[in-house]
Amino acid sequence: MEHLNEKQRLEEWKKIQTALVNEQIDQFRAEFLEMHPYDQAKIFEEQDEEIRFLIYTYLSPEEMAEVMENVDFELVSTFITEMVPAYAAKVLEDMSTDDAVDILNELDKNKVASFLTIMEKEEAEEIKELLHYEEKTAGSIMTTEFVVIQETMTVKEAMRHLRKEAPEAETIYYLYVIDVDKKLVGVISLRDLIIAEGDFLILDVMSERVVSVPVGEDQEDIARMMRDYDFLALPVVDFQNHLLGIITVDDIMDVMEEEANDDYSKLAGISELEKEGETAFSSAKKRLPWLVILLFLGMFTASIIGRFEETLDKVALLAVFIPLIAGMAGNTGTQALAVAVRNISTGDSGKRSNFSIIKQEAKTGLITGTICGILITLIIAFWYEDIYLGILVGLSIMATLIVATTAGAFVPLIMHRLKIDPAVASGPFITTLNDIISILIYFGLATAFMNFLI
Amino acid sequence: MEHLNEKQRLEEWKKIQTALVNEQIDQFRAEFLEMHPYDQAKIFEEQDEEIRFLIYTYLSPEEMAEVMENVDFELVSTFITEMVPAYAAKVLEDMSTDDAVDILNELDKNKVASFLTIMEKEEAEEIKELLHYEEKTAGSIMTTEFVVIQETMTVKEAMRHLRKEAPEAETIYYLYVIDVDKKLVGVISLRDLIIAEGDFLILDVMSERVVSVPVGEDQEDIARMMRDYDFLALPVVDFQNHLLGIITVDDIMDVMEEEANDDYSKLAGISELEKEGETAFSSAKKRLPWLVILLFLGMFTASIIGRFEETLDKVALLAVFIPLIAGMAGNTGTQALAVAVRNISTGDSGKRSNFSIIKQEAKTGLITGTICGILITLIIAFWYEDIYLGILVGLSIMATLIVATTAGAFVPLIMHRLKIDPAVASGPFITTLNDIISILIYFGLATAFMNFLI
């Protein structure tokens, strides 16, 4: 269970490689199985097809299941499909149900059907049920391998039951208690169970105030709950409070990572964060959609400036400040956007009305706008020795900052109320919107004050 | 332990409020203590000073400690300071050592010294030691309340020891095993312990391959490890492998949230994400530093365009495409930056050389640049019926995208090698840098091809 760094992994792999080339199965197994499954997976991923096929014959499906649970999610369907179907079905069977379901969701339907036919019936049924849940809900990330005890058991009986179930269960540190109707009625932590007297009934030692989540709950809300309440696992129930599965903290850490990456990449205007090892082509493919949209939005901005060509012809100097004003608008909008999106996604908003949030952003914009506006007026007045140009740019910056800050908060909030993911109003979108607003303000003011400028 | 939504919390609070006003201590305690500490904390936070002082007299320090562990970190030092010192010291004493240390780190030194004097000696010593560790390292987030067993104990003895220690320990689901020199030699999960035969020695049932982290390890690396290896806790050791403390998964979830917010706010150019409930003034204060820096950088951009005033005077139409080109440069740079920063912070980079990453980004820029360049050339050629202008803008976009994409990856990578947090090269910085580059390219080309444009 040692954590390996790159160098150690390389050395370890050399030993394993030698064993493979010389077909020393025992040697390979001894070295390989000694490692943490995460390291096994990292080493496995780096192999080419030929060696992977050798490894499939050297490891039992159960051992391979542990490897598959830890390989990069984008690679795992390739591996599963290249295995002999009977072996693949066994591997899927031995994985945690939730992980197996994640993989099957990536495969085509015929493939899934054939795997489910080969699989042991009970496991296949469990998987079939989980396959129905919508992505990113409690149902799709829960596992059905958990320990459940009856409220009428004694502590001693519960411990005995637990010992039997422990090897199969995903976690045993919370035990969920059901009544005769199989409804969730309580929870007891293993900590409390081992402290409790053996003859007591579970009913008397359990906590009745068990927190559960409905099967359709959004995974982001679950992550928030787990973080706030410091749970290691959460039970998932249907609308009649029947226990369906549990969600463990390790799955939630992956969700947190995923959701953070999601917000982050949308702020940057990428459809999906690229992984190390991607080709330039696939990177370009992920980034191009936004760039092309922005190109057209940019053309729109250009056509707006085009309408002020007359103004520009008279005072070419005006062009000099376009990037400054557009840039300030873009940046202040992104700041407001980031605060709004993150507060929505961490649940920090929602306590206040939209109106009060937007009023506050407008005030923030007023403060930053006034300060930046005065600053730029002074700089231009002294530098270009043109007080009127200074006032024009200063006023533009001030008006722009107020509008752009408000827009940065307004757009995601409205989207949130319309049940659209607010992060879709990504950075580049707000930036371009604010480009346009700022240019209209700037050239509008410039045209109005033209007499002072020439 | 029910999870309360806003409405439920309000109702609950009304009951509690009534009890407080009527000075019904028992009623208040019954209602309040029934809730999950997180909800207790949320309700407590919303009270004004007068009622908070009442609550301090109604709850024991131990009960208040649980509340304090869950209140918003930014508020907790206010609360601790307003308590009677003897009560506050007791509260700190009863909190998890790691949480108490976090709070004391926020207070001024005299205050800390006086608390430590009042505190129980043993607890004070533990805290004093933890106060020495640098922020954001293993030492600063670990707790010293863990269960440790001797390798020479039997399973039965270990279980007995565990039952005794369980109420105090932060987690009991991993038991760390030490030898006579108090060095960490193994680990056994509670799961394995309860399955093991009672007469076996711990030595024989423990795993010797225990993963530990050095006390100076960065918290971000620890979070990554915990996520990859699915641990619930990690032991922290000194350079001689003495067990110093443990880090539990609930603390790591907070670290993950913190680090994600950090990367995110830097991409958006805010020094720190603002919380709900902040005033417009404090929001403006957090955003202004970047805006002012950008104002000056923007002035620099303006002065560069100023140098091309002659070119602009001849062809005012050139100004029309400034936002388009600068915008494309900014956006493509932010995309590349986001990928690089996130890959560095999730540890996905580092396996490849800087050179190969930058080469790949340049290639990506070449592909996106060529496609966008051709597109814009065609659009301008048909729209403005000016093929030369089209070629000029197209070439500029192409060159800009190649350079800006490369710069977006180059800057954070260089910073990372220089041991500077790559996220410091935040979105606005890269955007402005790329503004300048793009304008130099655009006007440089325009000046060179001037003969074709007029």
UniProtKB/TrEMBL annotation, chains A, B:
GO terms for molecular function: magnesium ion transmembrane transporter activity; metal ion binding. The chain crosses the membrane at residues 288-305, 317-341, 362-384, 390-415. It is found in: Cell membrane; Membrane. The keyword Iron-sulfur does not apply. The lineage of its organism: Bacteria, Bacillati, Bacillota, Bacilli, Bacillales. The keyword Lipid metabolism does not apply. Residues 142-205, 206-263 form the CBS domain. Belongs to the SLC41A transporter family. It comes from Saliterribacillus persicus. InterPro entries: CBS_dom, CBS_dom_sf, Mg_transptr_MgtE_intracell_dom, MgtE_N_sf, MgtE_transporter, SLC41_membr_dom, SLC41_membr_dom_sf. Keywords: CBS domain, Cell membrane, Magnesium, Membrane, Metal-binding, Transmembrane, Transmembrane helix, Transport. This is Magnesium transporter MgtE. GO terms for cellular component: plasma membrane. Pfam families: CBS (PF00571), MgtE (PF01769), MgtE_N (PF03448). Acts as a magnesium transporter. Homodimer. It is a multi-pass membrane protein.
